[in-house]
């Protein structure tokens, strides 16, 4: 990631995100790492260390409790001090201790009545005071809400520039002694120190943007993608599949590249491999394919379906100072783009004379079959869509508010055209920049140049399509269903309404597995989805959003070239109502009460003895493993757990040893157990390795004492539970140790 930033001419990466996956519905849950604070903190610390080895600075975000998108700028998160410390602030504390990120980004929301960017209890007292952190604190984009309050609370940098709350306002605050000069000096010193840190990257100011699309990078991405896939179930060892059998590929995610979620984490890739292409590359004969049903919230991006006038995939983007009605207007800029989605926060062209400008986006669509084809466009600005010079969509004259592009854009306006197989059609979008928008964007993150999304798909009858799929499934030797969500459903700016898969997807999966029991389901989502068909399906893998090599990584696992070894970083509930935040997830008149307190994720399910559909830490393999010889060593500061892991199966694979700690007689109610350490080890068939998991004792056993405002490590007996999942199967091991003296502590 650091090397990629250098290639892009960037000094800073705005990540990683380590907010808690409190609910399955969180719009940015796919960005976060886990429902468990220790796993999130240690994972983020590793990312930070890797990024900053290159000299590029990492920005840990969003500090703190930015766990929902609903009314995110205004919502007041009401939370106990214990939950704040043990769950929501702990991953940030671990990152400071283990990773030392260059910058922190504050959350949009309030915590207990005060916006975080102007909350001295959180920024000055906890982050800078208790944790002794010396780096930069920046706001999220347009997440500064005051001058004096934010400066005094410790906010160094208002983003983005130019400042709204600083410059003249800050000068007035200093002149009237609202902001003492020594505090202003502290803020300026942090910014200058951060700038000096960025120099270590070697990236010059306004450095040229280049690419870093190398074969070794692709190989690494493919390996990481495969190693992140979770084998959820595999009855009858259906997986790995055969490369020589007649294969049917079906599902809405088969021919799209769902390699990221939506919002600011949505970046244009050099390339992206679809599951269909990855799977097809493994087969000895061509697969049969049909879509089965659609899953889009908005029509799939036209993307590579379009070709430029040079025959290259994508569209041509031509920029002007004047509208199409002006004859002989001068061309200001021309670029070719593969993606048909454009977010233009910092688009610049020296020839443009103002914020209001115009663009023609053009491409050619060759019909793959005779059909009715539906086009759709949502825009922040204005847009009209023409096919062969005929107006198909007018999203300029009248506009309706939508949720795309952080809530600034219109709904998707649609129009249809009749296509004939083999015929080439000229598609043109007349776009006008953000000032042309008729929408009220107050309260939304406003990205200056505007935004545009162009989608399209064949119109289908879903019920008839499923009947067609059933007939194809009966004729196939094996079936792969590519299902799940995409950036339409999981995105910054809006939370999901429910855990359901969209459209007819559940019906499609049930129908296919009924027609052919040799069916494997590939699920893609960043957070849990409802699976009413799960008991019918023999094999299921969860592939997340796997980056450029998504399709190849999925195929490697399906056909056994990669042995799946990942574990779930969050619990998958059976239904939405089971999750701990069910009654208190959205903002209610400006407030969200974290009523589940410290009991999020597996802590909740275990405490009320409610089984999850798939528990935290779950993940199967094509081989088998055994734990033995558990040893525990405790010193004044460290807790070390050693275990032998054997590969008792016939293929090479990897296992994750997970260490959970449980206090025997706590003075207050605590979770049944909590993850405190883990280690992954790769083993050949028959191989045995001894693994040592090292933990800080105080982090392994402490809880937050609200009376003392400190962490407490109680004198007591503690149980060590070593397992391959939080479910503690038959092969789990147990041991114990004692803490001889009760002590309190603060800081790191």
From TrEMBL:
- Show the GO MF annotations: beta-glucosidase activity
* Record carries keyword Glycoprotein: yes
Record-linked PROSITE patterns: GLYCOSYL_HYDROL_F3 (PS00775), PA14 (PS51820)
Q: What is its EC number?
A: 3.2.1.21
Enzyme class comes to hydrolase
Catalyzed reactions: Hydrolysis of terminal, non-reducing beta-D-glucosyl residues with release of beta-D-glucose
Tell me the route in metabolism or biology where this protein functions.
Glycan metabolism; cellulose degradation
Keywords for the protein's UniProt record, in alphabetical order:
Carbohydrate metabolism, Glycoprotein, Glycosidase, Hydrolase, Polysaccharide degradation
Domain of life (superkingdom): Eukaryota
Q: Which biological processes are named by the entry's GO terms?
A: cellulose catabolic process
Q: Does the keyword Glycoprotein apply?
A: yes
Which residues belong to any copy of the PA14 domain?
Answer: 310-470
Record family assignment: Belongs to the glycosyl hydrolase 3 family.
What PANTHER family has UniProt attached to this entry?
BETA-GLUCOSIDASE (PTHR42715), BETA-GLUCOSIDASE-RELATED (PTHR42715:SF27)
Q: What is this protein called?
A: beta-glucosidase
């Amino acid at each position: 990631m650091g090397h990629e930033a250098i290639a892009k001419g960037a000094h800073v990466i705005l990540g990683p995100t380590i907010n808690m996956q409190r609910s399955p519905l969180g719009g940015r849950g796919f960005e976060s790492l886990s429902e468990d604070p220790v796993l999130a903190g240690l994972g983020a610390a590793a990312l930070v260390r890797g990024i900053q080895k290159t000299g590029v600075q990492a920005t840990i975000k969003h500090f703190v409790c930015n766990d929902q998108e609903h009314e995110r700028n205004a919502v007041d998160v009401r939370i106990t001090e214990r939950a704040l410390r043990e769950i929501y602030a702990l991953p940030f504390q671990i990152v400071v201790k283990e990773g030392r990120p260059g910058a922190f980004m504050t959350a949009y929301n309030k915590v207990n009545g005060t916006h975080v960017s102007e909350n001295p209890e959180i920024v000055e007292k906890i982050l800078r005071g208790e944790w002794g952190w010396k780096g930069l604190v920046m706001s999220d984009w347009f997440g500064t809400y005051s001058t004096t309050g934010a400066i005094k609370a410790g906010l160094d940098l208002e983003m983005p520039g130019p400042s709204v709350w600083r410059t003249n306002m800050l000068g007035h605050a200093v002149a009237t002694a609202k902001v003492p000069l020594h505090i202003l000096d502290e803020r300026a010193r942090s910014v200058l120190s951060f700038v000096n840190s960025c120099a270590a990257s070697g990236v010059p100011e306004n450095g040229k943007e280049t690419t870093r699309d190398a074969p070794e990078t692709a190989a690494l991405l493919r390996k990481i993608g495969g190693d992140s896939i979770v084998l959820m179930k595999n009855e009858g060892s259906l997986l790995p599949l055969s490369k020589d059998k007649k294969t049917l590929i079906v599902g809405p995610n088969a021919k799209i590249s769902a390699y990221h979620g939506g919002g600011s984490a949505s970046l244009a890739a050099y390339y992206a491999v679809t599951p269909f292409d990855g799977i097809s590359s493994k087969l000895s004969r061509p697969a049969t394919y049909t879509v089965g049903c659609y899953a889009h919230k908005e029509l799939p991006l036209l993307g590579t379906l379009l070709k430029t006038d040079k025959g290259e995939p994508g569209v041509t983007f031509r920029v002007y100072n004047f509208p199409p009605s002006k004859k002989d207007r001068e061309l200001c800029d021309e670029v070719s783009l593969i993606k048909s989605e454009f977010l233009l926060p910092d688009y610049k062209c020296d020839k443009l004379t103002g914020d209001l400008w115009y663009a023609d986006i053009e491409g050619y669509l060759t019909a793959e079959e005779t059909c009715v084809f539906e086009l759709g466009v949502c825009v922040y600005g204005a847009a009209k869509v023409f096919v062969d010079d005929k107006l198909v969509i007018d999203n300029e004259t009248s506009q309706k508010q939508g949720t795309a592009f952080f809530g600034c854009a219109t709904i998707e306006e649609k129009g249809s055209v009749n296509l004939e197989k083999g015929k080439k059609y000229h598609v043109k979008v007349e776009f006008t920049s953000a000032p042309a928008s008729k929408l009220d964007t107050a309260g939304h993150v406003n990205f200056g140049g505007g935004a545009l999304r162009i989608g399209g798909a064949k119109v289908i009858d879903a019920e008839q399509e499923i009947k067609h799929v059933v007939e194809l499934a009966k004729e196939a030797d094996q079936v792969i269903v590519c299902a799940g969500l995409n950036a339409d459903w999981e995105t910054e700016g809006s939370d999901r309404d429910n855990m359901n898969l969209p459209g007819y997807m559940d019906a499609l999966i049930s129908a296919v597995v009924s027609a052919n029991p040799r069916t494997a389901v590939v699920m893609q989502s960043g957070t849990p989805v409802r699976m009413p068909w799960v008991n019918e399906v023999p094999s299921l893998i969860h592939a997340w959003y796997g980056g450029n090599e998504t399709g190849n990584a999925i195929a490697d696992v399906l056909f056994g070239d990669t042995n799946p070894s990942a574990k779930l970083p969050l619990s998958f509930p059976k239904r939405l109502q089971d999750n701990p935040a069910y009654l208190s997830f959205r903002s209610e008149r400006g407030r969200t009460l974290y009523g589940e307190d410290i009991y999020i994720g597996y802590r909740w399910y275990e405490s009320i003895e409610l089984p999850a559909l798939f528990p935290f830490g779950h993940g199967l393999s094509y081989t088998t493993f055994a734990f033995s010889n558990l040893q525990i060593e405790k010193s004044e500061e460290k807790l070390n757990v050693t275990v032998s892991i054997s590969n008792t199966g016939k293929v090479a694979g990897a296992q994750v040893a997970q260490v959970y700690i449980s206090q025997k007689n706590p003075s207050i109610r605590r979770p049944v157990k909590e993850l405190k350490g883990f280690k992954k080890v790769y083993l050949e068939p028959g191989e045995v390795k001894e693994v040592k998991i090292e933990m800080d004792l105080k982090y392994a056993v402490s809880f937050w004492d609200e009376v003392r405002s400190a962490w407490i490590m109680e004198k007591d007996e503690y149980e060590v539970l070593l397992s391959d999942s939080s479910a503690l199967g038959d092969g789990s091991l147990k041991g114990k140790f004692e803490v001889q003296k009760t002590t309190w502590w603060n800081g790191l």
